[in-house]
Structures are given as C-alpha cells and as structure tokens.
Design goal:
With 405 residues, this protein is an alpha/beta fold. Helix content is 42%, strand content 17%. The chain is built from 17 helices and 13 strands. It has helices at 8-18, 32-40, 52-60, 62-68, 84-94, 109-119, 134-137, 161-170, 174-178, 184-203, 209-220, 229-236, 240-252, 281-287, 293-298, 302-320, 365-374, and strands at 21-25, 45-48, 73-76, 102-106, 124-128, 256-261, 275-278, 327-331, 337-344, 347-353, 381-385, 391-394, 397-401. The strands form two sheets. It has an eight-stranded mixed sheet with strand order 7-6-8-9-10-11-13-12. Strands 2-3-4-1-5 form a five-stranded parallel sheet, with helices on both faces.
Length: 405
C-alpha cells in the first residue's frame, strides 16, 4: 500500500528523542502500525501482541517476554496485554536516561490511557493518530490553519463539489485513500462489524449486537445535533445507563466526539446540552445508508455530513500536531448559534459551516452575535463552504472554501 505522509511524523520523531517511551493510540486501521514501521522500522524490532500466542506469552511471563524483546522495540496492540506496562515501567526506571526505548500502540483510548497513567506517568509521550485529514490526503500534511500567521500559505488546489462529496463518502481511513477502487460499502461494513464490534465486545459485555447496530445508526442520524440520550434510549426501548455506556465505548474507540458548548458570563441564556459527532465522515455516511454522492449532497443529512467533515478536519489536525484541541459550539436559548468555536492563543475563532457555495454576509449573523457578546476575545471569523470562493464578508468574517480549512 502506498505510504501517505502524516502530520504526526515530526511530532513522533521529536517525542522519541525526548521520552523513554511513546504511546500511540487511535482507532483501528488509522495507520498507526504503518506510521511506526515507516519511521522506525529499520532500527526497531516489531512485535504484535494481537495474536493469541504472543498475547498469552506477554501476560503469563511479562519479565521473560520483555527480556526476549529488548529495546528498541515496537509493541503493537499493547492494550491486549496491559499487564506488561508495570514491567515496562520497571525497565524504564532502570535505564531512565535512555530515550526512545519503547514504542507502544493501541486502539482503545480510555482503557490504554488508564493503564499508562498508572504505570508510565512522566515516562511516556501520549499521542493520537486518527484517520487522514484532507490536508494529509492531498499531500500537504503540514498545512497551517487559516487563522495562523504563517508566510507560506499557498492555496490548495480546488476540488469540484461532486468530487468533494465522493471523498466524504470514502472517509479518511488510509487503506481507502490509497486504494480508490475499493468497494466503499463493503469496506465500511467490514470495519463496523469486524473492528468496531470486536472493540465493543472487549470493553463492554453487550449481549444484543443487533440493538447496538441500531444504536449506532440512530446516533449517526443525529450527528451534529444536540445529544438527548433519554430520547434516544426511549426510541430504542433501552435504559439510559446502557446508552451512556455504549456512547462511552464509542468515545473510547475514537468513533465519536462529544462537542460541549462554550460558556461565558455574557448575560445570555445558553444551551448547555452537548452535541455528538462521528469522527470519520465515511463511517457516518455508511451508517446513515448513503451510497451515492448526489444523494449525500442533496439529502437531509447533507448539512450534518458537511459540518462533521469540517469539525473532524480541525480536531484531527490538532491531534496530529500532538495538541489537544479546545473546541466548542455556542448556542443561545433563542437559537442563535455558532457551529464551531476554536480556542487558540487566548482567542476564540468562530466558524460557521454552510452548504451554500454562494456565501453572503447574512450567513455571519451567529458570528456577529457571538462577537457582540464576547468582544475582544473573538478573533477572525470564518464561513466554511464547499465551493471555491474566498471572500471577505465584513465585520471580521471571511468566506472560506472547505479545501482551505
């Protein structure tokens, strides 16, 4: 498979020079193994702990296993043998001045991070790799955000709107990007059944997988909406606590993101309910039954799909830089809303997502209200749309093509 350069490469190399260990987490098939082998494969032994015999050896005799595979070593899918981590800590403490000893990867976020926090605190850099961003897929992994003051800001090549929706249906998993002839529906169906369900079963005892599939689909249909778990559970005939537990599993396996509202003492009644988004727009399209780009672009899910694409591009780019994104939305009880608020360098960057390729000043009414409410804390605003028009709209707001995001 053709290797696609990732934004995280420089971060990984730097962390490897500064930390004794690195923990790389992210969803299955996001390219973790490929990236580690590409950067370190010539000098590091590679061991996958996913196979039953290796997993058993690592669990039964951790010290013997680590002696058999001394550093520098890549231990892939380490969440299958979390009992290794205290013994890795023991070896790191015995050689505390040696950097880049262990490269650990795993596809279960919360489970793995909990073990890392207990065992490797201060000894390991924790990084996340999600599916490809659009900038990575287009060969510009280090491209800056529009609000960043950088001299080298070449405009990206425009993508015709029909082709852009084809990319949304495809999603960001590297295997699909590197193999454009793959059957998208078959691949996503296999991913949901083989990978997601396996992670789900390992994290929670879920007896009714058919009900879980229905939960996935109804949650996907509400991507970009305010999250009402009570209503969702009632529609499916399940208890709210089960819905909460299943949602936490989807968060732990990097399938969904909960976007929380931004609060400030501005004298307005603000909505306090969070929103839910799927992290990969291709997974979202599959779960909502969309197979054709024309139907996706013109149907009732077109707005949530495009909003999901914009949000995931921002979130993934931050994570692939080794940074935790501080991202919110803003909505008053009167329905005035800004889709995405990015907090960076003490400024709040308001972003509205619009399906129309003909941006107009009236589209910035939410940003204008947000700016009036928070004043100098608000930076330049953006109306992100699927077309190719880059246009000032007045009042510190710019219409920006998605491809320049």
């Amino acid at each position: 498979m053709t290797y696609i350069p990732r934004t995280l490469e420089s971060v990984l190399l730097k962390a490897n020079r500064e930390f004794p260990a690195i923990v790389l987490t992210g969803p299955r098939q996001s390219g973790k193994t490929t990236l580690l082998k590409h950067l370190f494969g010539k000098h590091y032994r590679y061991v996958s702990i996913e196979t039953p015999d290796v997993r058993e050896a690592a669990s039964i005799d951790p010290r013997g296993f680590l002696a058999l595979y001394p550093p520098p070593v890549i231990l892939d899918e380490v969440h299958f043998a979390p009992s290794l981590l205290p013994y890795i800590k023991e070896r790191l403490d015995a050689h505390r001045h040696e950097k880049g000893q262990y490269l650990l990867s795993g596809s279960q976020n919360l489970l793995l991070i909990e073990q890392v926090t207990e065992s490797l605190a201060g000894r390991a850099a924790i990084l996340k790799l999600l599916p490809l961003t659009m900038r990575e897929a287009m060969g510009r992994p280090q491209a800056s955000f529009p609000w960043e003051e950088k001299k080298d800001k070449p405009r990206r090549k425009n993508i015709p709107i029909p082709d852009l929706w084809k990319e949304f249906l495809r999603g960001g998993y590297p295997e699909l990007s590197a193999n454009p002839d793959r059957d998208l529906i078959l691949w996503h169906a296999s991913y949901v059944q083989t990978y997601l369900e396996r992670d789900v079963r390992s994290l929670r005892q879920i007896g009714d997988m058919m009900l879980f599939q229905s939960f996935l689909r109804i949650l996907a249909a509400r991507s970009g909406q305010l999250l009402n778990l009570t209503e969702l559970a009632r529609d499916l005939g399940m208890v709210v606590n089960t819905a909460k537990a299943w949602l936490s599993v989807l968060e732990a396996t990097f399938q969904v993101m909960i976007l929380r509202p931004y609060f400030a003492n501005v004298g307005k009644r603000l909505v306090k309910t969070p929103k839910v988004y799927f992290m990969d727009v291709g997974t979202l399209c599959y779960l909502t039954g969309l197979k054709d780009p024309v139907h996706a672009a013109s149907g009732p899910m077109s707005g949530p799909i495009f909003e999901t694409a914009v949000l995931s591009e921002i979130v993934k780019t931050f994570l692939h830089r080794g940074e935790e994104p501080r991202i919110y939305f803003w909505r008053t009880s009167f329905g005035i809303e800004v889709d995405i608020i990015v907090e960076v360098n003490g400024k709040l960057i308001p972003i509205e997502v619009k399906l129309s390729s003909t941006p107009r000043p009236a589209m910035a009414v939410g940003i204008k209200s947000f700016r009036e409410a928070l004043g100098n804390k608000v930076g330049k605003g953006y109306i992100v749309h699927p077309g190719d028009i880059h246009l000032p709209l007045g009042a510190g707001t710019i219409a920006l093509p998605f491809i320049e995001m």
